[in-house]
TrEMBL record:
Residue ranges annotated for the 4Fe-4S ferredoxin-type domain, each copy included: 2-30
Record's protein name: Ferredoxin
Record-linked InterPro entries: 3Fe4S_ferredoxin (IPR001080), 4Fe4S_Fe-S-bd (IPR017896), Fe-S_cluster_ET (IPR051269)
Coiled coil: none
SUPFAM superfamilies: 4Fe-4S ferredoxins (SSF54862)
This protein's UniProt keywords: Electron transport, Iron, Iron-sulfur, Metal-binding, Transport
Record keyword Thylakoid present: no
Alphabetized GO MF terms: electron transfer activity; iron ion binding; iron-sulfur cluster binding
Keyword Iron: yes
Function noted in UniProt: Ferredoxins are iron-sulfur proteins that transfer electrons in a wide variety of metabolic reactions.
Amino acid sequence: MKATKVDKDLCIGCGLCCGICGEVFRMNEQGKAEAYQRANAENQGAVQEAADSCPVSAIA
């Protein structure tokens, strides 16, 4: 699986991605989301849902 990236310049820190897929996303000390784990076959759908749901399209 390719790595998931969060554009910290776009991220507004809403936390939606963490709520959808906490296995891959978490909030950092600056209040921005980060992908701390790679997506895998079990959570790929949730990662895609998080990317699709991001209000500022910060997840690639």
